[in-house]
Amino acid sequence: MEENKSCIFCNFEKRYIITETNYSFATYIPRAIIKKGHFVVAVKEHIPTFTGLSMEQFSDISQLSLRLAKKAEKILNAEKYYLVAIADKDLHFHIHLLPKLKEDSPMGRHIMMDEGWKGEVGQTVSDEEVMEFIKVLRT
Predict the structure, then answer these.
(1) Which of 62, 113, 118, 127 satisfies CB 3.0 to 4.6 Å to 122 for a cystine?
(2) pLDDT of 45-80, one tens digit each?
(3) How many other CB atoms are found less than 10 A from the CB of residue 8?
(4) In the β-sheet with 39-43, what is the strand arrangement from edge to edge?
(5) Which residues lie across from 43 on neighbouring strands?
């Protein structure tokens, strides 16, 4: 496993490990998690981005995330689990799993507006740009 001395995921506290596999581990991170049922699944190797993962790593982190989310959903009687992977602050690929409890407001409105995700500057994408992107992605 390649390590980065300043990376929180390369230097996590072992006592917070939920479980691990050959490629991934699930953990609780006290400084980042303040919601009951929120946990993180990360790849063991120091890889900054989703697209840097191998197919084996992707398959492993996905399966571990799904298995634990299903179990946690039952334990908490959650409506569902949100899956979020941003990694702008901690540049080591990881997935946050956040429960949606019955009393929680839907999270979607905090991420997507009625017209879609606008980001900080409120940019819009023309239909022409959308169709061009779809066309290129299909090839």
Answers:
(1) 118
(2) 999 999 999 999 999 999 999 999 999 999 999 999
(3) 19
(4) 17-20, 24-27, 39-43, 94-100, 80-84
(5) 24
Query: How many helices and strands in the chain, by DSSP H and E?
Result: 3, 5
Residue with tokens 């009393």: 103
- pLDDT of 122: 52
What 3-state DSSP class applies to 138?
helix
Cα–Cα distance between 115 and 124 in angstroms, integer?
9
For residue 70, the Cα-to-chain-centroid distance in whole angstroms is 15
Global pTM? 0.79
Task: Tell the burial category of 136 from Cβ atoms under 10 Å away from its Cβ (0-12, 13-18, 19+).
Answer: exposed
Cα–Cα dist 35/67, whole Å: 19
